Amino acid sequence: MKKIDTIIFDLGGVLIDWNPEYVFLDVFNRDRKKMQWFFDHICTSDWNENQDAGYPMAQATEDKVALFPEYEKEIRMFYGRWVEMLGDSITGTVDILKKFIDSEDYKVIALTNWSAETFPIALERFEFLHWFEGIIVSGEEKTRKPFNDIYNLTLERFNIKAENAIFIDDNLRNIEAANNLGINGIQFESPEQLIINLKTFNIVL
Fold this sequence. Notes:
This protein is of the alpha/beta class. The chain is 49% helix and 15% strand.
């Protein structure tokens, strides 16, 4: 087995709790079925990820309002109340991150799908984001996971050998894309499961 010398963390869903339900469950009077329909048909994951890849949020909002004027109020809330969707840090994973940082045996990088317009809010709120050797923010690079170019950019910018790196992400699609480029992947489920999965790479924290 190759010696692992680099750990690449996703942020949202791994180190930071972000969930639009924190706003929209109340907006839809706690009717999950109506809320899910809104996420499935109007403010979809694909639509949001387009902004993660650099499309302006204001323009995306106007585009969507033009298509669904009857939902204008709710559409404008998506980015208008974005800060309220940002939860707390996922403490157990932050503890794992700290152990990697303190060990000094690993290069520790973050690779996140995140709009460049909102990422400064996270940087201000979460001190641990300043621990990384570097962070690749999709919105700044005008591309996103799971496209090959953002993984290749990460490898090149930080002089990482794919086979010597572990990428931790909660989205299986993103893990599979990393695997296709030779990067070892762990799908994040919980901090406890992450510790177990790291042991398969002979990493004991």
